[in-house]
Structures are given as C-alpha cells and as structure tokens.
Amino acid sequence: YLGVMPAYSAADDALTTKLVTFYEHKKDSCVPSHLATILLFDPRNGSLKAILDGSVITAKRTAAVSAIATKFLMPAFAEVLCILGAGVQAYSHYDIFTELFTFKEVRIWNRTKERAVKFANSVNGPVHVCSSAQEAVTGADVIITVTMATTPILFGDWVKPGAHINAVGASRPDWRELDDELMKNSVLFVDSREAALTESGDVILSGAEIFAELGEVVKGMKPALPEKTTVFKSLGMAVEDTVAAKFVYDSWSAGN
Q1: What is the assigned CATH class of domain 2-56+239-255?
Q2: Alpha-carbon torsion (174, 176, 180, 182), positive or negative
Q3: Mean pLDDT, rounded, for 107-117
Q4: pTM of the model
Q5: Which of 62, 95, 200, 209 is most enclosed, with most CB atoms within 10 A?
C-alpha cells in the first residue's frame, strides 16, 4: 500500500508531501510495517528544500496529538496507563505520555508476548507486561491502542467508566480495534470528521456518532467531557506532518 499525503499551511509557510508505504508483514520482521519520507518544498517556487525521515516525524506527531487529546479528555485523577501493542507507536506514545503525565502504573500487552517483554526492557521506567488485553485494560484510566488488529481487541465491558481511549490503529474502513459497545457508549472525538467517516472501520462499522473534532475542543468550541468515557479516534492528517517537518527544518536551519 502506497499513500501520498500532500498539504500546505499558509500560517507556517510550508508545503509538503509525505510518501508512506504500508506492508502487513506475515511474520515478525526487522522492517517496520510503515515507512515514510517527507518532501519539503519552497511554497514560493516549488523547489525541493529538504527530504526528511517521515517515519520519525509520523511516530512523534501521532503521539503528540494523542497527548493533546489526553490532556483534555482524561479523567481528573488518572493513575494507570495501558498500551495495547508494542510497535513503533507504542514507544513514541510511552515517551511523551510519561514525560507529560504522571502515572503510578504502566501496563503493556502485545499479541506476541516477546515483543511486549522487549518493550518493557527497553524503556526507561517500570512497565508491567500483561498476559491478556483484558488484564491490561481492567482498571486503566488511559488506554492507548496501537495495534495491527483488523478485528476488535478492546471491548467495552472491560473498560473502566470514565476512562479515556486513544485509538490509533485500524486506519482502514474494514479494520477494527474497538467493539461496538465501546464505540457506542463513549463520547467520540476524532481528528477529522471527513477522514473518520471514510477511513475508520471503528467509526463506520459501529455507526457511532462523532461528538467533536479535537480541534473544536482545543479552540473551546466543544466541551471536553473528561468525566465521561471518551474515545479519540486518531487517523492522522497531512497538515500535522507539514507543521512538524517545517519545525524540524527551521530548527536545523537555525543550528547552521
């Protein structure tokens, strides 16, 4: 699968295209399932200014958006963080979530337990490896799903009332991470309504109603409702790559 994500930001004076390849590896591979490259152009004349590692930027900007959603939507006294999945996004989410928030316990589950153990041994803080997704989720205040699942791996009857879920995987219209019960009984936030209704199997197949875009919450146009069970469905937007790439380029230019 080859995706092309062009975007222009007048506010940032930035024009980019991200090229991303996706391969569903049937066996564990040393090559990530997603690889990306970002081309940064000069908006004035279209000349190429830089080629950037899109995989790093994708990992960091995706985790950053999840962190913003969590800042607004998580319960007031969140103590337990749960991560389902142990790939690249698990690492980037762990890094920013443990930097910005204080959790008393971090749990992880992965379909292949060896990868979860490797994750726990690689990160800086203590992580409890769980033998099942249900064990990891039970009692968690903040849940992050960053899996390659095509059918639900997170079920509503496992989830603590008032918890916040960042659903990052299942980026195709026929893929799921969350079951109907969780989708329909939570307040649903998305990064883009248009994208969610055409690309997210969790949203499309459950028929769940979208309450707000995250941007509407950040701008004060819609309430966050952290006292309720909330789901943020993240698909990613090209403009996030554009802003991040321009930030990296400007920082690099200033250093030179």
Answers
A1: alpha beta
A2: negative
A3: 97
A4: 0.93
A5: 200
